[in-house]
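User: I'm new to structure prediction. If I give you an amino acid sequence, what do you actually give back? Let's try with this one:
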Amino acid sequence: MTFLQGIAASNGIAIAKAYKLVEPDLSFEKKTVENTEEEAGRFHAALEKSKDELSQIRDRAMVDLGADKAAIFEAHLLVLSDPELVTPIEDKIKSENVNAEHALKETADMFITMFEQMDNEYMKERAADIRDVTKRVLSHLLGVHIVNPSMIAEEVIIIAEDLTPSDTAQLNRNFVKGFTTDIGGRTSHSAIMARSMEIPAVVGTKTATEDIQNGDLVIVDGLKGEVHINPTPEAVEEYRRVNDQYEAQKAEWAKLVNEKTVSSDGHHVELAANIGTPKDLKGVVENGGEGVGLYRTEFLYMGRDQMPTEEEQFEAYKAVLEGMEGKPVVVRTLDIGGDKELPYLNLPKELNPFLGFRAIRLCLEEQSIFRTQLRALLRASIYGNLKIMFPMIATLDEFRAAKAILDEERTKLESEGQQVSEKIELGIMVEIPSTAVLADQFAKEVDFFSIGTNDLIQYTMAADRMNERVSYLYQPYSPSILRLVKMVIDAAHAEGKWAGMCGEMAGDETAIPLLLGLGLDEFSMSATSILKARSQISKLGKAQMEKLAKEVLNMRTTEEVINAVKKATQM
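Assistant: Good question. You get back a string of structure tokens that encode the predicted 3D arrangement of the chain. For your 571 residues, that looks like this:
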């Protein structure tokens, strides 16, 4: 049995066969062929296999993901049936006596270049379709299997170098029991999605894709951050016992599902959930969420080849608002950039995308995208308790500009006879240190703050949270971070506003006593963390935690803070 140590990213134990999700090697050499008819026949056989495969994917997508996702694969089928693409490939094979792989790539590259240079946005999108389908045909010519996470139909554990947000969004939780990656940390988006999906995950193992083969039996221990490869029957039995104990603990926490979140001395705070899609609502309700503290709308834009329409967005927002039955729903406007890309936007590559053209910066420049989203949100507002939050706000001017666009769209909708709620709170994510420092001025103009600690910590410590080599600097309990959090909370309260936190720190058992003491009003976390946090808070005294918070703000190191929390709470 081989053992890998990684980072515990999502709680739980998973035992299943490995399914490697890695990019295949599709390299080949140009060759001269004698029998061109036979070579053309080989090309057509690969074409038919690709069509059969895409038909299956389309049908599965229709059932599991809906008509909009299925339409992508319908478009791909049309490309493979288009004589404008197929005939030139046949002609090249026969006229130049070249292998099908070379003819396919030469022809496809010509069309891709041609479409990408067009001004028409629709035609540009066809380049992505051609790239995708020709990759599939090429894989069949080479006899190489292309993995598709949405087509998994047996219980597996995903093994990958990393998982993109769109990869993770495609995983079918009925079959994907867990995953492990070579890179990443607790705050990488794949880890956050794993917690939303309630599947165990271990990230940052460094060598999982090297050490694990397809079909290996794997144990993912999301409690300790361990991965066991081909374990002994005794080890499997022991882990089944550990999993039973964990499930029993979850059953105890589940008794609190309909309870308010109240400290031992009677102070109430709100425990909300972070979600990515309307499908995540089930987990929020089952785990007793008192609201949605962060709806990551970017997942509406991912895993597709064009922008979601206003109507598609309206239906998604309406579903979440109605599903929460009047409980607060904080919707974050589009936060694209960093490690979250939209291929169809064709944004230029940046040396440091986390500090670049992203989130509100992109939305203020690409106003047609922003206005469409705001219209959909405003139309949906009458179906629940909507709060809108702008991400990556660095200056008051940015907030004012975003608010002005929102007000303009409200006026347009009302002039069209559309009903819009009069009670939409407008806030910002505090994830840039300059914003935290100026929180007292922001608090005069916003309705609320939500502290995004995942980015706030990496920006304050100048340490990329995706980089394992500087992961030691990702310190949520650093006195410097705690002082910034206190500044934001105090600034909000001075203006009669509320302050929440939607970063992963909000559900961290070491951070929770400190945040309670600092006066945080709303803790938003992965739904699976809510009941555990509620149980923990019920055992903490607010007054005692205020004393603890005051003490740690004057400490010098993270270690001192952790030790003080352990001593005060007997953790």
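You can read the tokens as a compact description of the fold. Here is one thing that stands out. The radius of gyration is 26 Å.
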